[in-house]
């Protein structure tokens, strides 16, 4: 039988590890059953044990409840094992905080802070720069490459893998995603997605549901991608929604472009091929394809495919009415 013990400055109500003059482990004394000299011992029982299962089941039948609590103490197994000629040993844990008890929300917070520091300090020793470790939250299964810089108020969770040389700025939340090398990500929410290399993402960006962002892309502020593949060296600067879309290389998506992918019942796919230019305030009514080298003029609602090299324009022709601006602005005076 092996017991995991810890050295505590304040043992409180923990059971004490009692040893003889040679340091050999004798027994565990519960705090309420301790003598004054035993209460002075600062080596405590963490409640973590290793047993031979067959011997555990056999000897547990010998437990008795003749103690102050009138309870059956599993710790009495130490004496029982010794009485039957079995080896018992108490091993001291290096960091006592690792075995701290959690009995309320304060202690839960203290344990969480311990784990946060342990994870963050380890990544810093491995070559990751964390600007403020107390305000950075990294899950235990996350992997991060060297020379990545992580700013405060960042949460990286799940099975996320981040490459080297990245800059993760304030306000990022990244979950179950793979991020390549040398990316700059600012105030972005990224879940279940993959990012290539040398991209610039954010601020205030949302990528979700298996997005694939290829190398060299620029995605700016107030953009949401959902289940979208964005080809390399393309641009989407701001105020855009792309859902269920495949977008090629060297594509420009203008401000306010929307893939209209939901008809109230089904989700439909949009394809934008390489070297296309989509102007501002464009609606692409899916299913639809904009083929290679095509241009969609600003303000257009696209309801059918745009062939290679063509330009789609679908807006009302402008008409200027002489003097109507003055009349409109003076209407308050007429009242």
From TrEMBL:
GO terms for cellular component: cytoplasm. Gene3D superfamilies: Hexapeptide repeat proteins, Spore Coat Polysaccharide Biosynthesis Protein SpsA, Chain A. It catalyses: alpha-D-glucosamine 1-phosphate + acetyl-CoA = N-acetyl-alpha-D-glucosamine 1-phosphate + CoA + H(+); N-acetyl-alpha-D-glucosamine 1-phosphate + UTP + H(+) = UDP-N-acetyl-alpha-D-glucosamine + diphosphate. Its cofactor is Mg(2+). One of its GO terms (molecular function) is glucosamine-1-phosphate N-acetyltransferase activity. Keywords: Acyltransferase, Cell shape, Cell wall biogenesis/degradation, Cytoplasm, Magnesium, Metal-binding, Multifunctional enzyme, Nucleotidyltransferase, Peptidoglycan synthesis, Repeat, Transferase. The keyword Cytoplasm applies. It is found in: Cytoplasm. Its main location: cytoplasm. SUPFAM superfamilies: Nucleotide-diphospho-sugar transferases, Trimeric LpxA-like enzymes. It holds the Pfam family Hexapep. In the N-terminal section; belongs to the N-acetylglucosamine-1-phosphate uridyltransferase family. In the C-terminal section; belongs to the transferase hexapeptide repeat family. This is Bifunctional protein GlmU. It comes from bioreactor metagenome.
């Amino acid at each position: 039988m092996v017991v995991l013990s810890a050295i505590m400055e304040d043992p409180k109500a923990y059971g004490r590890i009692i040893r003889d003059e040679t340091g050999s482990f004798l027994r565990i004394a519960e705090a309420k059953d301790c003598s004054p000299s035993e209460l002075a011992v600062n080596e405590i029982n963490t409640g973590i044990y290793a047993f031979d299962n067959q011997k555990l089941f056999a000897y547990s039948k010998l437990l008795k409840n003749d103690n102050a609590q009138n309870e059956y103490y599993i710790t009495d197994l130490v004496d029982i094992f010794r009485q039957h000629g079995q080896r018992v040993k108490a091993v001291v844990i290096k960091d006592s905080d690792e075995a701290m008890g959690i009995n309320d929300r304060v202690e839960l917070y203290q344990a969480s802070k311990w784990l946060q520091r342990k994870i963050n300090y380890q990544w810093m020793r491995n070559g990751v720069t964390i600007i403020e470790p107390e305000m950075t939250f990294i899950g235990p299964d996350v992997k991060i490459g060297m020379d990545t810089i992580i700013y405060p108020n960042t949460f990286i969770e799940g099975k996320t893998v981040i490459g080297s040389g990245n800059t993760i700025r304030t306000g990022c939340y990244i979950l179950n995603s793979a991020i390549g090398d040398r990316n700059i990500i600012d105030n972005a929410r990224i879940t279940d997605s993959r990012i290539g290399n040398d991209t610039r993402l954010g601020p205030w960006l949302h990528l979700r549901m298996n997005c694939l962002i290829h190398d060299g892309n620029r995605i700016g502020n107030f953009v949401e991608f959902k289940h979208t593949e964005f080809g390399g060296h393309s641009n989407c600067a701001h105020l855009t929604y792309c859902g269920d879309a495949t977008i090629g290389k060297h594509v420009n998506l203008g401000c306010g472009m929307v893939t209209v992918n939901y008809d109230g019942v089904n989700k439909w796919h949009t394809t934008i091929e390489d070297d296309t230019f989509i102007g501002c305030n464009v609606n692409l009514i899916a299913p639809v394809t904009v083929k290679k080298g095509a241009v969609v003029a600003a303000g257009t609602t696209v309801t059918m495919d745009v062939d290679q090299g063509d330009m789609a324009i679908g807006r009302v022709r402008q008409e200027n009415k002489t003097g109507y601006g003055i009349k409109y602005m003076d209407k308050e005076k007429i009242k």
